[in-house]
Specification:
CATH topology of the largest domain: D-Maltodextrin-Binding Protein, domain 2
CATH superfamily of the largest domain: Bordetella uptake gene, domain 1
Mean pLDDT: 89
Strand order of the largest sheet: 2-1-3-10-4-11
Number of domains: 2
Distance between the termini: 72 Å
Radius of gyration: 24 Å
Structural class: alpha/beta
Order of helices and strands: HEHEHEHEEHEHEHEHEEHHEH
CATH class of the largest domain: Alpha Beta
Length: 326
């Protein structure tokens, strides 16, 4: 073999190797998914977030033809699990079941090890959970207007409970004070269960709860729903008026949805987005969500991204004025 022939052969090998390596990502995308997909829930197993994630994991598995498991990574108010997903390979095999707190509003209260815009790619919203203004079961007030009128006569004597500093129920309480002109004082608890227990015991005057946390206490006659915090009345909580009917513009809705690491390829992201949205609309999943007083969503990536940006705009001034820090 001449020197020139050897050089030509080496060039052909190099070109072939480069073409093969360039084809690997495309091949991986074409074969997706070829192994187990993990949905990381940044909260403990058994909680409301965990239950919502597991409800969509099974239909996703069926539609993708691959096992989809839920993996709990709790800690630091949901930011530990969120950071974990942000640092994983952007290959579509590790997803985050995120929500308003660690995925968005926490960034307004402290420096996080990840950036919701730079490190994550929204895939699909799963549910929207309107907060509910709850009062004691024996409260004489039947409307938000009457409740607000009475509260204004009490000054700072009244209080409201939350699931913790910086959580959605805390922000909603401060927002209510701002919008309704009341002066409820904040009492934080360590979660939904302790909050509704204290509420039932008469330790607080009102709270913003979710249907996931408050249903049992309502059924037991311990607390009473007064109005829903969605922009208008919702079918998942029939008969409840919207707070906005008496406090114009008031809205406090928590979202839950799926996100992936920012660099996930377009073809994989699009397949996941459509699969998640379709899973939400499965009759058995839809029925389960409605029974838990949450609104099935199944959004496009763009709708989820717009929701995240919207709540950052909404809650930023409230957090700054109330000086809420984590």
């Amino acid at each position: 073999m001449t020197l020139q022939t050897r050089r030509d052969a080496l060039k052909l090998l190099a070109a072939g190797g480069a073409a093969a390596s360039m084809g690997l990502p495309a091949l991986a995308q074409d074969n997706y998914p070829s192994r187990v997909i993990r949905i990381v829930v940044p909260y403990p197993a058994g909680g409301s977030t965990d239950q919502l994630a597991r409800a969509v994991s099974e239909p996703m598995s069926q539609m993708l033809g691959q096992t989809v498991i839920v993996e709990n990574k709790p800690g630091a108010g949901g930011t530990l699990g969120s950071d974990y997903v942000a640092k994983q390979p952007a290959d579509g095999y590790t997803l985050l079941f995120g929500n308003s707190g660690p995925s968005a509003t926490a960034s307004l209260m402290r420096k996080l090890p990840y950036d919701i815009h730079k490190d994550f790619r929204p895939l699909s919203g799963v549910v929207k959970v309107p907060l509910i203004l709850a009062v004691a079961a024996n409260s004489p007030y039947k409307t938000v207007a009457d409740f607000v009128a009475w509260a204004k006569t009490q000054g700072t004597k009244l209080n409201y409970g939350s699931t913790g500093i910086g959580g959605s129920s805390h922000l909603a309480g401060e927002y209510f004070n701002e919008m309704a002109g009341t002066q409820f004082q904040h009492i934080p608890y360590s979660g939904g269960a302790p909050l509704v227990t204290a509420f039932a015991g008469g330790q607080i005057d009102m709270a913003f709860v979710t249907g996931l946390d408050g249903a049992a206490m309502v059924q037991a006659g311990k607390i009473r729903y007064l109005a829903v915090a969605s922009p208008k009345r919702t079918n998942v909580l029939p008969g409840l008026p919207a707070i906005a009917e008496d406090v114009p513009g008031f809205s406090a809705v928590v979202w839950f949805g799926m996100l992936a690491a920012r660099g996930v390829p377009d073809t994989i992201a699009e397949r996941l987005s459509k699969t998640i949205a379709a899973a939400v609309q499965k009759p058995e999943v839809h029925k389960l969500f409605v029974s838990r007083n949450v609104e099935p969503w199944g959004s496009t990536p763009q709708e989820l991204a717009q929701t995240i940006d919207g709540e950052l705009t909404q809650w930023g001034p409230i957090i700054k004025k109330a000086n809420i820090q984590l």
